[in-house]
Amino acid sequence: MKKQESMVRIATCAIFCITIAFAMQAPAQTETTIYKFHWNTDGAWPMATLKTDKAGNLYGTTFEGGGSVNCGFDTNMPWGCGTVFEVTAPTKESPSWKEAPIYVFTNTGDGTNPSGGVVFDQAGNLYGVTSYGGTLNGGTLYQLVPPASGSGPWTENTIYNFSTSNDGYDFPTYVVFDKAGNLYGINVTGPYGGVFELSPPAGGAGTWTYTQIHTFTGAPNDGGDPLGGLATDSSGNLYGVTNVGGSSTNCGSGCGTVYELSPPSTKGASWQETILYNFQGDPDGNYPEGGVLLGNGGNIYGTTHSGGVNGALYGGYGTVYELAKPQMAGDPWIESVLYSFDGLYSNSGGGPIGVPIQDAAGNLYGMASPVAFELSPPSMSGEAWTETTLYNFSSWDGVGEFNSGLARHNNTLFGVTQGGGICNVHQCNGTVFKVTP
After folding, report:
1. Residue 382 confidence (pLDDT)
2. Which residue among 41, 204, 237, 364 is buried most deeply as judged by most CB within 10 Å?
3. Closest Cα to residue 52, out of 405, 429, 352, 393?
């Protein structure tokens, strides 16, 4: 799958949500739609995995909506430039979930269409990126500072403006912090995309420093078109996926890779890339899009959007995979397919994009259109993992191609649907939901 197709899907897949209605939920779980977006006032098309704070409040972004008139019109209504929102958890004083935009993008230098979720720094500020806009029209890295009194508006600061004329890349997606406070993210555009670092100024005042730490080539020993986000370990290594490239010849331009970027021992030297795995299409999957999870024991978990054993050749319905960490330095990572999905809009779904999450017992949780699923490890090594459909979404509670994963607070799972909920003239706007196993 080309990166252009992935970008077009972001802008179009919710259009189909009005017409789809499929199977009922599994009886052992309880799903609750805790918020339905309205488009103009509060945003539309939430597509990124939610973040939770210690109190269980939820934070996320909508790709469009919010009411700004600076991002185009349809049927005499503004598309809106997107929002960052908070959904406040119930309390004794306020027993209902409450949603409120904490920032509405206006495309007046602040960016438009936030393409990833948000991350917290140690001070409680939120950071994220927009796909477009900013002073150079290549997207922005923004910071949102909470009100000092606990109530009132958040303050938006644009930290960096992306541009092909400035740094060679635009359309940034997601960011992640390392323990030193540097931010790392993906540039989708450019010849084959890249990975960047943004370092804060010394003392907290001044300009952040941009560094392109890797540029993909699409070559068999490299990969191309990185999508999703990055994961970082305690040593500062970065892990991610490329949608194409790698050594396989089964998928035309390669079936994609899992890669590691290791920081240099000397400041200013080059980062070292290592390809941990090359996908083959069948039976292991192809076109990974969501990034990876560094899970229990240092193993890597992720999803492929297509491929696997259920489907024609490498056009299957996607997989969940594991890369087992080598026991000795220099040994290869060992890949295992934990589950192959059996079809879009079937009972088990298909086409997963988001990164799975893992609990202490090793169970994995994620989204595959149109279901939320759980994968449980076997009691004996070598046996099959067990897939459980936690909930099968329908047209009224949210369907569409899910671009995100799940968040977990205590024993409850939270997520967003890009479609479903309240429908306007041309689209359904999406929802926030919870699933309690």
Report:
1. 85
2. 364
3. 405
